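Narrative summary of target 7.
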Amino acid sequence: MAPEIPTAVVSQRDFPMYEMPTLMDGVFSHLITALEEVGIHPSGPAFSLHHRAPVSTADLEVGFPVDTPLTETLELPSGYEVVPSVLPGGRIAWRSHIGGYGGLAESWGAFTEEVGESEEQMTYPFWEFYVTPPMPDINPATLRTDLFSLLEPREV
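Modeled conformation, tokenized:
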């Protein structure tokens, strides 16, 4: 059983998938500094948490797990508002994806198939930890992204 973990996030509903790089850059380039200004520090890598399957839009949270729960709303220079949230606790499944972000859909598919072959089923939300911070000069083949999903017993 995984514990619930406090987070500081930018929460978006019906966010256009084609604007995802703008959201990620607008959050991750400013959030650590904004948190440190109020005495809060990331306790893990950047993540995105999805409340439903993204198609052309997504309902998601983008941020960091934090060492102390956020108690106020912060505004980033990019205009996004940071609010408190949590990574859910409970039974989870996870797997690592090594390689560029373009291969994530294939890894999610294999992960879903793996879980489907067990007596479990995935449920929302699901999330990704960007373990290797993306940098302009990084080799995409070395990126590590950890995939997580809540689990519930599969009805027989």
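Helices lie at 20-28, 31-37, 104-116.
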